[in-house]
Amino acid sequence: MQAETSTRGAVPDLAYPPRKKSRLAQLARELGKNKHYYILMSPYMIIFFLFTVIPVVFSLALSFFYFNMLEFPRFVGWQNYARLFLNDDVFMIALKNTLMFAVVTGPVSYFACFLFAWIINELSPKVRAVMTLIFYAPSISGNVFFIWLIVFSGDSYGYLNGFLIKYGFMLEPIQWLTNERYILAIVIIVQLWLSLGTSFLAFIAGLQTIDRSLIEAGTVDGIKNRWQELWFITLPSMRPQLMFGAVLQITGAFAVAEISIALAGFPSVNYAAHTVVTHLMDFGTIRFEMGYASAIATVLFGLMIGTNMLTQKLLRKVGD
C-alpha cells in the first residue's frame, strides 16, 4: 500500500513539467543583459522616434481629416484619397512624372554608382582618391546644378544653343526650359548627374572591405573571370552597402523637387516637370490644405515602402 501510494504521488510530478519562463521575463532579461547597448542607442532612437515615427503616424492619421491650419480638423474619411485619384488631374500628371523619374533615374544611377565605384577601386590609391573626389563633388556642392541653367539657356548665349547654332544644326535658339517636350528629359539628366553621391561612397567603402582571401579561394573553386568573381564573391560580400545605396537611390528618385523647381519653375509649363513632392509642397505650404497634403505624403510613403521591399527581395538573390 505504501509503495502504491508513493507511486500515485509521483505521477502528478511527471505529468506537470516545470513552467517555461514567459516572453516578458525573457525580454526583461535580455534588456538587462544588453542595457549598455540600449543606453548608447537611446539618444538616436529618441530623436528618430520624435522627429520621424511620430510625424509619419500623425500624417497618416491627418490624411483622413480636412485641416486648413485655422479650423479644428474635421473627419472626412476617404474623401481626400477619392479626390486625389478621381478628381485631381494634376496629381495624376505628377504621379506619372514621378514614376518616370523613379524608373529611369533610380536603376540607372544605382548601376552607374556601382560601375564607377568598381572601376575606380581598381586604380592606385592616389588616383582613386582624386577620381572619388571628382565623382562625388557635384553632390556636395550645394546648388551647383544651377550651372545647367547656363547650358540650357533659351537664348543664343546658352552653351547648348550656341553649339547647335554654330555648327548649323538649327537656325534659332530653343527655349529648353519652357518647352514641355524637353523639360522632363532635362531634369532627369541633371538628376542623374547629381546622383553619384553617398551611394557611390558606400560602394567604394564596400569594395575596400572585401576579404582578398575569398577571391583566392574562389579561384581555386573554379571562378574563371571577373564577372563570376563579381557575382559570386564581390556582390554577396557587400550586401549591406548595396542595400544602403538602394534605399538612398529610391528616396532620391521619388523625392525629386528642388531640381525641378530650380530648372523648370513652380509650377512648370503645363506641369511637364511636376512631381508628387512639388504637388505636396503646393497643397502643404501654399494652400495649407494639410489633410490633403498628408494624403499625398501617405501615397508617396507607400510607393517608397513598396519599392524598398521589392528591392530587398531582389538583392537577396544576388550571388545565387
From TrEMBL:
It is found in: Cell membrane. SUPFAM superfamilies: MetI-like. Gene3D superfamilies: MetI-like (1.10.3720.10). It is a multi-pass membrane protein. Residues 95-311 form the ABC transmembrane type-1 domain. Keywords: Cell membrane, Membrane, Transmembrane, Transmembrane helix, Transport. Pfam families: BPD_transp_1. The chain crosses the membrane at residues 44-67, 99-121, 133-151, 182-205, 242-266, 286-307. PROSITE patterns: ABC_TM1 (PS50928). Belongs to the binding-protein-dependent transport system permease family. This is Carbohydrate ABC transporter permease. It comes from Paenibacillus aurantiacus.
